[in-house]
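User: NitT/TauT family transport system ATP-binding protein. Structure?
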Amino acid sequence: MSKTFADGLQTLETVSLEVEPGEFIALLGPSGCGKTTFLRIAAGLEPLSDGRLTVESAAPDRPAEVGYVFQTPTLMPWASVLANVRLPLTLRKKPRKSADAEAKAALENVGLADFAEALPRQLSGGMAMRASLARALVTKPNLLLLDEPFAALDEMTRFRLGDELMALQEEQKFTVLFVTHSLYEAAFLADRVVVFSPRPGRIIGEVRNGAARPRRPDYRTSQPFQELVEELRRLLSGDAEPSSSPQNMS
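Assistant: Predicted structure:
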């Protein structure tokens, strides 16, 4: 696929990516390389200039569900946390009783059951992002798209939310496309890291992470993890030869 905006700015050039169901893929690259544009195209928020994109459903008799988590929580400040999480179900005209039950279950999954009636201003940054994640997951999506969701959080909160996201994905088996600038975040979370060139974005390499799940915090200090981070650094800096096939790091 390719993407050129009306002003002539080309953000993506001949990008080809096949994603397996249940895979956790990190999209890594410099600022402005088209990662967010790629995510918006996958969500149906941005049209393609050339090529095609197919999002397959887990069940052949219904369309795919796609959840999207933005860089900021984008919660409605006047509404309770429960109402924010319930919103996608409300827009689908789901009966209030069942919508409330599903929204409360989503909040339970992200550890916010006790904050259902709180307002967004009463939440910490990490809690607000948890609420945003619950809202994206309340429709039980096949595909979850996350655009640098932890970028504004402190390091320890990022680690904790990353662990929680992996646990949710293991439990619910949704597919993940996760945009990040962080080599360490990509190396810890993903099954496969896809590296983009500067604009116009092209895929210049892929590295698979063969480490078993669930990944313990001490994996971050292991030699295989450090080698994976170094391989990603080399790809980003142009010190490695572009790779058309994924490399395995385990």
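The chain has two domains: 1-65+142-176+184-239, 76-139. DSSP finds seven helices and nine strands in the chain.
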